[in-house]
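=== RUN LOG ===
request id: a7f3
mode: sequence -> structure
chains: 1
length: 245
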Amino acid sequence: MRANQVYRVETECVTRYYVWDAVVRISHWLNVIVLGILIFTGFYISTPFYRPTADEPFGASVMATMKNLHFLSAIIFTLNGLFRAYWFFAGNTYRQWFRFHIWKADFWKEAWWKLKDYVTLRYTDYELHTLGHNTLATLIYVLIFFAASVQGLTGFAMAGKINPGGFFDTLFGWVIPLFGGEANVRMIHKLIMWGIIGFMIHHISFVIYLEVFREKGMLSSMITGLKTRPLGWEPIEKPWEKKEK
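=== RESULT ===
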């Protein structure tokens, strides 16, 4: 399938739409892997939960290995994020965040309508109005992208202190005085990590819920690229204007 087109694959009961291209799917699963490594090694670096005795041959290398894995994963996560930022402009409709016109009232009307839907669980009463992200989800992803950027800046700034005057200290050393010292930078780094963990818990649980009870193919769409809708389904441009049930 060509990435810049939306394909429909109809069966007797549903229509399947090609929504997520291979770049988006590979980038997503690469993030899953490196975030898992970053969180695991980050916990170990902060509070080592396994301390080999000094006479064990690998005793002195465990912490160094964890730090190296953490740093390498952070590099991959950053490069992946920068490429996704490029892909937001180069991609098609469903992978572009910038197709949303944040300066228009309709953007915020949809976000407010969707927030009320989630809080009151009314979204269970009807089919989703779009194949891509709704505007509220878009806002959340933008915030997560911003938080991940700050996470990278604070992490590379702390890594730079290992080699004062080196490449990372020169490039990111300004971050530490900006936030009032290394202790504050470390605290911000940890707080954002907990925020990302909270987002991951919500994201995974909600996707599984939608996969099982609502939008069949939600989880598998990040593997196949295909989302499923009932036959005859059409996107709704202004769902907040529909009649309440």
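=== NOTES ===
The two ends are 39 Å apart (CA to CA).
The chain has a mean pLDDT of 82.
=== END ===
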